[in-house]
Amino acid sequence: xxxxxxxxxxxxxxxxxxxxxxxxxxxxxxxxxxxxxxxxxxxxxxxxxxxxxxxxxxxxxxxxxxxxxxxxxxxxxxxxxxxxxxxxxxxxxxxxxxxxxxxxxxxxxxxxxxxxxxxxxxxxxxxxxxxxxxxxxxxxxxxxxxxxxxxxxxxxxxxxxxxxxxxxxxxxxxx
Length: 175
Description:
The strands form 2 sheets. The protein has a 6-stranded antiparallel sheet, with no helix packed on it. Strands 7-6-9-4-11 form a 5-stranded antiparallel sheet. It has 2 domains: 9-41; 53-167, Jelly Rolls (Sandwich). β6 (107-112) and β7 form a beta hairpin. By secondary structure, the protein is an alpha+beta fold. It is built from 2 helices and 11 strands, in the order αββββββββββαβ.
């Protein structure tokens, strides 16, 4: 049996990271206090169509109904992706993390791997990590194609573009 097996949790309480010291320990305390203050002021309710933050892509609006970017310890992300008729979001893959598409309005096509799936209101699509995926709004309508997109785990916005999505091979995007 390893020497630390069965060690009571009390060993960790009041020690280690509960009692940090050093020249920058005060910065950590200040950051935590500022974060707690901002979190207390953060509205945790919203409306899909009244975003608090936008992160738009060519061909798709990306609407955040709650500003979860101010919640660094969150476990998942969510946005409303909104494409005008005939617009699309390029096929891409995420290096890790899963994604869920829930169609809330309009019609279009959701691409998962090599398959194209007709998509309409209330359809749900689970996209495992590493699988090529994207979507296109139907060009034959005047209604936007709106997808509630949920990602887990959460990813810091500074890392999202650089590390969360993986490069797609030449020609793979159009399959």
